[in-house]
Amino acid sequence: MGFIHPTDHYFTYESRLASFRKIHSASRRRASNTTARGPKTLKWPHKFLSTQERLTHNQLAKAGFFYLPTPVNLDNVSCFLCHKSLDGWEETDNPLVEHLRHSPECGWAITATIERSDGEWSEEDPLCTKILEARKATFSDKWPHESKKGWKCHVKQVR
């Protein structure tokens, strides 16, 4: 049995969205010289996400992020595809714009931007090399038909 990367669990939108509802356990390990007790559980710290404001769990999950808090960065999220972690979210942040800004080569960020018709990518030829590579990257190594004999749909033939 091969190694399963932790982000493999967040390949679907539903699993990424569920990560924001889950209460995460804080690490029990701490330095021997610390006496303060930190929280035993970690959960999304921002109240503005429960309102109809701009930044929502839904938008974060659609931008490819799942919730991956640390005791120091309670609002840390990570992309399931490029593994880029971001924290310090503000109410007016746009997750997709931030994702593309901090990880401009991420296939998910590029294709999600095109889908929303945002930014320069929406004007590009869908068959240009950069967009083809972005689309291939979104498959990662998960394309189920790649090794099927006689099957003509292979990642290298994406067009």
UniProtKB/TrEMBL annotation:
<dbReference type="Pfam" id="PF00653">
    <property type="entry name" value="BIR"/>
</dbReference>
<keyword id="KW-0862">Zinc</keyword>
<keyword id="KW-0479">Metal-binding</keyword>
<dbReference type="InterPro" id="IPR051190">
    <property type="entry name" value="Baculoviral_IAP"/>
</dbReference>
<protein>
    <submittedName>
        <fullName>Protein bir1</fullName>
    </submittedName>
</protein>
<dbReference type="InterPro" id="IPR001370">
    <property type="entry name" value="BIR_rpt"/>
</dbReference>
<dbReference type="GO" id="GO:0046872">
    <property type="term" value="F:metal ion binding"/>
</dbReference>
